[in-house]
Amino acid sequence: MPAPTALLRKPDAVSLEEAHNVPLPDEEDESLLVDSNASSHSNQDAPALQASPVDIEMPLVNLDGTPRFPPEKPSALAYHVQSRKVPVPPHRMSPLKASWPKIYPPLVENLKLQVRMNVKSKAVELRTSKSTVDTAALQKGSDYVTAFTLGFDIDDAIALLRLDDLYIQSFEIKDVKNLQGEHLARAIGRVAGKSGATKFAIENTSRTRIVLADQKVHILGGFKNIGIAREAIVSLILGAPPGKVYGNLRTVASRMKERF
Fold it and tell me: Fewest 10 Å CB contacts: which of 71, 93, 214, 229?
């Protein structure tokens, strides 16, 4: 490397010296020369090669910097048969036989399940088929049949198939307070009310459905709504007067209206 204080040569002199130093091609190397016209013709005759684009799935990024992956494309799932049996209590066999033409169409047409009523074993058998698409169809079908066997109407039980945030919670009156004899009968009467007025009031306020089956209470509804109905029923079992429970239900109803 020359010193920074050295004199620079003129560019013309440098180009002349480099031109003299370049060796001339030999006669034997003429075969290596390529004609520009011939190369252009050969390129036109050759098929044009198009680079195939490489599909690289890059994850999308949210505003906060977290990756956001696209939804998975539907693919053919492996066919695997799953079955489930829902036992039917003896006192619900007659209503099941009478309402069977209305019970099985939602299971077969909507959930694409295979259903049969086994009278010998007193159970409703459910099984998946090749046309079953929803992976949770078997669970929804069993919850639907279970709701009917617990005493709910068909219209209320069908809501379990349409909505995903509905649950069934069951408990006994003795779980709240150990009552026996007439005390237990009076507790059940307080929960039901005259001609079922108290039970209907709790259902309409909490937007749930309640079934009183002897000493058991079954509640169908959303998670928060079940809690509201359960608190009202527990207070009645513990001996609270119906008027106080009605007042609490009015307060809860006004709060729910403010939310919505």
Answer: 71
